[in-house]
Design goal:
Number of helices: 16
Helix content: 25-40%
CATH topology: Amidase signature (AS) enzymes
CATH superfamily: Amidase signature (AS) domain
Distance between the termini: 18 Å
Number of strands: 11
Structural class: alpha/beta
């Protein structure tokens, strides 16, 4: 197998080959590292590449697998994490001058769980400064591998670009208002935002603590299932992590969509561009063909959520940066600094009102799952956006931001979501289908998403790099 083909195997395919010893972890790791060094100077998906540690981990994995000490599906698989996940002794900068010298003395729980699973850590992935909407002007952001003129998807953009370009087999993203879903959509890959608390946030620098979710970004739904199985579960170091049984996610991804009730609010879907709306309706029909049942639903009004999301997130960001803002305000880039300024201006009654908007929406939204198992909608209103399309500062967030209309409501409610290619991109990033599940309903999302993926070829679209 040539090097490029090896780099573009799905995680599931590589995992099977590693277990059968048809390929070694060292071979896969060298191939991906070579590709990183070839493409990263242009794509800028990685902020830190860990060549020697990764190869040492790969050698250890090969020895263990050969000795029959197989740890599971991630054993020997090269992965990467967003550069707000603590990694012991490795720069963890959040793409900001504020943390340019930070070397954690311990790992984030997700990094520890990757280590326990035998995965190979390739490096730390680029992001917008502290995971909001803007790059620090002195730290240029990643480029979209489909087209550098297109938006790479905001916060977890390095995770999206690296996964799409064959620079890792899976990545960790975080999502406070859309930052797993936007880069998954913008880069034509799969992103799973689990239920709030399903994956530990310990050692992951927060943007908005009550809104932050951590999850996998991959090239297939089955891959997302394997990663979720490795990273999910209660963590005593994170009091918000859930003590709830884990489902067999890999088995769910094999189970098919028969009898799954898919909720569809056509008026909500129509809030996207015509090509995206058509792709979502076509995807719903495809799900129906493979055994799902379409049920018409009406979502609670989402627009009040968008203004409330800004109030909550900005205030929580200001709280999270109290040690360095405003004392080191000049070290922040102008975009994120303006967001902290906005957060510092939030009054207690504003936060309380926003919290009640959230509670009302979440309560009404959960009631929909009395009649459906998942809800189908877009991941974002457009298949792609121009790379210069983001406003320069937080002033635009003072009004409801329509870009957040298909994402932020489900951070407010805490529900799990699965984003995946849902149509023909015709050489550009494909429209992205989002499935939203009931709380702790990741297994059902994976059932529906993997069945849709097997019935279509949209997930096989790749950028030409």
């Amino acid at each position: 197998m040539d090097s490029k083909a090896l780099c573009f195997l799905t995680l599931s395919e590589l995992s099977a080959a590693l277990r059968k010893r048809e390929v070694t972890s060292v071979e896969a790791t060298r191939a991906v590292l070579d590709r990183i060094h070839q493409l990263n100077p242009t794509l800028r998906a990685y902020l830190t590449v860990l060549d020697e540690p990764a190869l040492r981990q790969a050698e250890a994995a090969d020895k263990e697998i050969a000795a029959g000490k197989y740890r599971g599906p991630l054993h020997g698989v090269p992965i990467a994490v967003k550069d707000l996940c603590w990694t012991k002794g490795v720069p963890t900068t959040c793409a900001s001058k504020v943390l340019r010298d930070f070397r954690p003395t311990s790992n984030a729980t997700v990094v520890d769980r990757f280590e326990a699973a035998g995965a190979v850590l390739l490096g730390k992935l680029h992001l917008t400064e502290f995971a909001m909407a803007w790059y620090h002007p002195e730290i240029p952001g990643p480029l979209n591998p489909w087209n550098p003129a297109l938006w790479p998807g905001a916060s977890s953009s390095g995770s999206g670009a690296a996964t799409a370009a064959g620079l890792c087999y899976a990545a960790i993203g975080t999502d406070t208002g859309g930052s797993i879903r936007f880069p998954s959509a913008a880069n034509g890959i799969v992103g799973l935002k689990p239920t709030y608390g399903r994956v530990s946030r310990h050692g992951v620098f927060p943007l908005g603590e009550s809104l932050d979710h951590i999850g996998p970004m991959t090239r297939s739904v089955a891959d997302a299932a394997l990663v979720l199985a490795a990273i999910a579960g209660r963590d005593p170091r994170d009091d918000t992590s859930l003590d709830a049984p884990l489902d067999d996610y890999a088995a769910a991804a094999r189970a098919g969509a028969f009898s799954i009730r898919v909720g569809l609010d056509e008026q909500y879907v129509a809030g996207s561009s015509p090509d995206v709306a058509k792709a979502i309706l076509d995807a719903a029909r495809e799900l129906e063909k493979i055994g799902a049942r379409i049920v018409k639903v009406k979502l609670p009004e989402v627009e009040p959520c968008l203004a409330a999301w800004t109030t909550l997130c900005a205030a929580e960001a200001a709280a999270g940066h109290a040690a360095t803002y405003p004392s080191r305000a000049s070290d922040y880039g102008p975009g994120f600094r303006s967001f902290l300024e906005l957060g510092a201006s939030v009054r207690g009654q504003d936060y309380a009102n926003a919290h009640m908007v959230r509670e009302r929406f979440a309560t009404r939204f959960q009631q929909l799952f009395n009649n459906v198992d998942v809800i189908a909608c877009p991941s974002m209103p457009f298949a792609s956006l121009p790379n210069d399309g983001m406003p320069p500062d937080a002033s635009s967030f003072k009004e409801p931001n329509p870009l957040l209309g298909f994402t932020a409501p489900f951070n407010m409610s805490g529900n799990p979501t699965l984003s995946m290619p849902g149509g023909d991109g015709k050489g550009a990033p494909p429209p992205s289908l989002q499935l939203v599940g009931r709380l702790l309903g990741e297994a059902t999302l994976l059932r529906a998403g993997a069945a849709f993926e097997r019935a279509t070829e949209w997930h096989t679209q790749r950028p030409v790099t």
